[in-house]
Amino acid sequence: MKFLKDFFDSKRKHFSEGGRLEKLEPLFEAAETFFFIPGIATQNGPHVRDSLDLKRLMSIVIVALMPPLFFGIYNTGYQSNLASGLPLSFFTVFVKGLWIVMPVIIVSYSVGFFWEIVFASIRKHNISEGFLVTGLLFPLTLPPTIPLWQVAVGISFGVIFGKEIFGGTGRNFLNPALTGRAFLFFAYPGNMSGEKVWTFVSGVKTSAADAFSGATPLAVSAVQGSFDLIETSLVKAGFTFSKLFYGTYPGSIGETSTLMCLVGAFILIFTGIASYRIMLGGVLGVLAVAYPGYLFNLFSGSSSVPMLAMHPSYHLVMGGFALGIVYMATDPVSAPGMNSAKWIYGFAIGVLAVLIRVFNPAFPEGVMLSILFMNLFAPLLDHYEIKARLRKRVPNV
Question: Is residue 140 within 8 Å of residue 326, measured between CB atoms?
Answer without folding.
Answer: no
